[in-house]
Amino acid sequence: MIQLRLLELHNLILTKISMNPMSRYLVVVGDIQEYTQSPDEYMSYFRQSMDWLVVQQSFFNNIDIVVQVGDITNGNFEWQWNNAAMALRPVAEAMPFIAVTGNHDYTWQPGSEDIAYIRDRGSSLLNSYPFNIYRSMQVIGYFENGRCDNMAYRVQLGGRPAHFIALEFGPRPEVIDWAEHIIAAYPATDTYIVTHEWLSARGERLDDHNCYGVRQFGASLSSSPETLWNRLVRPYDNVIAVMCGHNGFVTSLFTPNDAGRMVPQMLFNLQYQENGGNSLLQLWEMPAGSDSVYTYIYNTGTRIHHTDPATMISFSRSRASMPQ
Fold this sequence. Notes:
The chain has 324 residues and is an alpha/beta fold. Helix content is 26%, strand content 27%. It has seven helices and 16 strands. It is globular, with a radius of gyration of 19 Å.
C-alpha cells in the first residue's frame, strides 16, 4: 500500500511538471497512420500519449480541446480505424476532441501509369467512428447532416468562446462556401480552421500547382490551401489560426490578413518520426489572463520537451482591430 501511494505521488509530480495548472491548453495530435497500421510495433506509443492526456485532464481539467489533423489510418481499413478508436475514445470521452480526414483516410484504386487515386470522398470510414462525443461540444453546423467530414464546433478555449471548423481533405468549392458563411456569421468569435493539407515541409502555403488534394480531385472539385487562405482566412480577422498535418514534422507560416494581423498557420505531422510518432504531442499553452499562445512539442513517454527553437512557436490571439 505504501509503495503504491509512493508511485501515485511520483506520477503526480511528473504530471505536474508537464503542464502548467494555471494555463489552458489546446493539444494537436499529428498524423497517426504509422501507429494505427502497426499495432504490434507502435500502438503502445500512441496509447501512451492518449492515456497521458486523460491523466492530465483528470488532474487539472485544463485541456480545452484536442485536435487531430488527419491521416488517422494508412488506407481506410476497418481494423486500422478500430486501432484508432481504442486509443482515441477515452480522450473523446474526457475532453473536446475533433478529427479531420487525411488523404490516407479514403479508399484508393489504381489509375493510369500505376498511380493510385482516391475512389470517392464518401469512402472514408470517419463517419462510422464519430469521435466528437464530449458533452460540452456544441455543433454549430454541418455541411452534410450527420457527417463529420465538414463540421463546425463551439468550445471554450483559453477563457473565451471559440469556433473550430473541420474541413475535409481537398475541400470542395461548395464546402468553402459553407465554411465562409459560418465565419462571416460570427465575426466576434475566435475561429480556428483544421484541415489536413495546408503547408509544405518548408512552411510554404500550397497552391493549385503543388497541392496534393488538387492532384487527386482536380481544381474544379477541390480547393488548394491558397484558395482557402483567400476565401476563409485573409478577409476575416476572427480567424485566429490554421492547423494542418500531411507534410514534414513541425513548421509554421505567418502571413498578414487584410487587417494587418500576422495569422499563424501551423503544421504538425508524426508520420516520419520514430516508433510511428514516438508519443509526441504539440501543446498550445495559453496562460491565464493573456492572449499569448506558446506552442512546443512534448514527449509523453520521456517527459521531455523538444528544445529545437524551430518547434517552439509563439503568437497572440489578439485581433488587429482590438486595442493592444
